[in-house]
Structures
1.
Amino acid sequence: MSKWFYTGKAFIDGEVKKDVWIEIENERIQTIVYNDLDWEPNSGSVIAKFRNSIVIPGLIDTHVHLSHQGRPDESWALDPVTTQPGDLSLQALENAQKSLLNGVTTVRDVGSRDFADICARDVINAGLFIGSRIIAGGHAITTTAGHMDGSRYIRNNIPYDSIANMGVIADTPEEAVKAVRQCILDGSDVIKINVSYSEPVRHFNKTYAPEMTEAMLHAICDFAHLNMRKVVGHSHGGEAVDNAIEAGIDSLEHGRFYTDKQFEKMAAKGTYLTPTLSPEFRSPAKVPGRSSMSQAWLDNLRSIMYDEVQRASSIGVKISTGSDAGMPYVPHGGVAYEMEALTRAGLSNKLALLSATKLAAENVGMGDCAGDIKEGLLADLVVLRKDPIQDIKVLQDKDNIEMVIKDGHIITGFKKTKIMEK
Ligand SMILES: [Zn+2]
């Protein structure tokens, strides 16, 4: 038997509709009726009425690292030699659970150590545990000395395979295709790559340099697309960004130091930008013990990042919300803070909400089954007491969440709502 619930308002296709009845049959939205105060269903069971609430699509965080904990200090640099695969998988599962309880029904992992995201995805999909739906990246493709070469953090001559990696090394187009094949074998739903790096050039007062050659970027995008995987790229500025856009990359992450011309190319190609403002937005301005290089990098990013997003948005680049959860100061489940940061960059509350629902769904390849409240889509829904279109920050308050539904299953809120009319 189908189940119905009523809310005073719903965020549907970018607009607020009033007096909304939603019917859920199995995992999907079966029927929606709105703008009719006196309408009542004559079949199925009514599970709740939320007269003063608003329902929004389940939130989607398109850039997380489930094996990372968001610890504020720099001790994470030791993780490649101190963590155990089993621990990481359980931590990834817990992070997916935290996310779901905060209204995030889908996360895209773009690099986890020891395939922790793939393990968590599989036990959630098998129905053994609840948790956000995980689109798993597994290991990301990186070059020797690249952004995700874990051996950069440890002493020389330690065998790469003996540390807890989140990267698979490739230095030529042939090795890059082999690395995509390896990711597919490992169980990756999406291919994460490192387009440009910054750390190894900071000593020279530079902000970025190409990590992958143009030929590698083409080889990866072509082969991944043949195998129905989207390609997502860590990137800062420079020629590597142009090469990645030309190669057909699907989403560029971070996006610092881009020119207007690069944003114009992205807008023309339909390339998404996931700005990941949270690590800089949520980190304290100064912290005792922070290295001078880390401080200078943080200051630099903070001084430009809102302007970058504003320029990208006004040029017409599609912005997708990704929190970079797992990085220092960014615990999992906090995509709402990323949405607040996007509004600081000039996005309206409505656009910030779209960037974490409809646009995010399109970015991760789920535009035809999630990200909106429409008949036939997956029933991923969040009922809120206060309206985020009025104040985006209400999404940060867990007490504001009345009910979370994923795949038609009520995850939280049912006991409170079953017998109550509000
Ligand atoms: Zn990241």
Note: Confidence is low (pLDDT under 50) at residues 414-422.
2.
Amino acid sequence: MFDGDFTRRRMIAVGGGVAAAGLLVQGAAALGQSTGPAATGKPMPDGVDLPANPPATVQPGSVGFAIIGLGDYALKQIMPRFAQSGRAHIAAIVSGNPAKLKQVGDAYGVPESARYSYDSFAQIATNPAVEAVYIILPTGLHAEWAERAFAAGKHVLCEKPMALSGAECERMIAASQRANRKLMIAYRCHFEPYNMAAMALMEDDAVGALRLIRTEHSYRMGPTTPSENWRVSRALAGGGPLEDYGIYGLQAALYLSGEMPESISAATYRPANDPRFAEIFAHVSAQLRFPSGATAHVVTSYDSAGLNMVEARGTEGVLKMQPATNYGGNTLTLEAGRNRQELTPGDSEVQFARQLDHLASAIRDNTPIITPGEMGLRDLRLIEAIYASAASGQTVRLNPDATMRR
Ligand SMILES: NC(=O)c1ccc[n+]([C@@H]2O[C@H](COP(=O)([O-])OP(=O)(O)OC[C@H]3O[C@@H](n4cnc5c(N)ncnc54)[C@H](OP(=O)(O)O)[C@@H]3O)[C@@H](O)[C@H]2O)c1
């Protein structure tokens, strides 16, 4: 089923109505108002292990980060990994839940003066211990809080997906340029040994001439509703699984092919009468055609049995990853003729600290960011093209910068 209604309304917001929306945003920004959903505190997630003792002293020259949004990913994956970083440390935290702010602040040894609510966030501008802000909020809040962080004079590391639309990404890039501060998107697979090894193999033509990439990122979401779970709310999650999970497969298709698609055809599916999919898609399937003639099939679902896989097939062999983009436990196999090689290029766990160190190095040494805002913008443009194709039932042709050809 093509969901034209969803996409038409979405496209009005991000496409046809962009000029009017832009004026609205500028007007509201001038008044210091937010135009989208509000940031609000949430309960402590289940299963969080807070450190028994605050982390050891900070290395000289280390970059101080403020973590904004103390949710599942921040508390279980990111904050514990600062201990493995040589160049980054937690200098502040921002949360809408005062009890959680205190509990987490005490556990991580964050001074009380460096614990902020969403209302007091602007005061971070006068805290010199904070040089960067790591935005780990629901996606629909990324653009607004990146702009606020830049207005406070901080560098920004922003979780994926960068935002909900190309227009929002452009606003974030413009704010970064105005503030003369760095903007990095937290695409952790660019720092993960298995994905890095796969990129190197593809660059070395390990499968011969590339013919087909297949990626699937799927799981079955439990019963939920948009008011209970931001991941099924359109205002906070956009179209759903593609922005949240399928984006890993979309990214892999680009970094393994080394090409930009020249056209996309796609289909979306949304079952009727399922509260999980009242506002978002259940399933997205996109076919990308590259200038070389290779194609990529990118599939993602919130309503099918779990799979996390990437496969690149060429004239001489095939590279297989399953799981491909997890926090740990990834695999990488290269098959060529009768040869089958299982590669173990390193510990996936390093991806988190390497990502932090990467932004710290960019700040300290002015080195280039390999996952900049422009990459996040590119991906949101491709996502918009996928939805446009699904809505129209037509193949969408693309310019090299991923904008749609009119
Ligand atoms: N790179 C990865 O592998 C990866 C994995 C998972 C998630 N992520 C990304 O990380 C971000 C957060 O995801 P998550 O899984 O951590 O989400 P989550 O567990 O729901 O946490 C989100 C946090 O954001 C804050 N928040 C502020 N306004 C909110 C609102 N209106 N609704 C819900 N939460 C609100 C809350 O923190 P306070 O209570 O402290 O205010 C909440 O705990 C997303 O951008 C997601 O795509 C990335």
Note: The longest strand covers residues 303-314.
